[in-house]
């Protein structure tokens, strides 16, 4: 898309180019927004598009503006017993956890438990974190007999690439515009 071009890439979404690779999307209804954020990848003219929740404080020209965008992620709880691997339990745990940890995420979509990926690797939920820095790596799930709890790892995937050199999102080290510092040790 060229700067200023407005195109309809989805019947319920209209996109407007804002420049510097950013687009503003307007949805006809909340369901269209939820559907768009729930899917991991979108393509437009053979380019991958990553949708992010727009925050009221985002200013395109500001330094570090990318850090204010809320990217949807996949969250998965590892090591759950088979009888706890269902959509209701996963949704309940993530929603309770979100409330306890300053609303770390809003659950927007649970992957279908009948899919091959879900059967092999376990269920995962699509979330929009408010702050990716404070996302915890483990949670404690109480045991059924009431005797303490068991720690379970929480794995987050599907976020934008982050460069290990400049720590900006959207590109890898291979495509980093910041020059590589030569090794100072002889």
TrEMBL record:
SUPFAM superfamilies: Retrovirus zinc finger-like domains. GO terms for molecular function: nucleic acid binding; zinc ion binding. Transmembrane segments: none annotated. Residues 163-178 form the CCHC-type domain. Keywords: Metal-binding, Zinc, Zinc-finger. PANTHER family: GLYCINE-RICH CELL WALL STRUCTURAL PROTEIN 1.8-LIKE, OS10G0362600 PROTEIN. This is CCHC-type domain-containing protein. It comes from Ceratodon purpureus (Fire moss). The lineage of its organism: Eukaryota, Viridiplantae, Streptophyta, Embryophyta, Bryophyta.
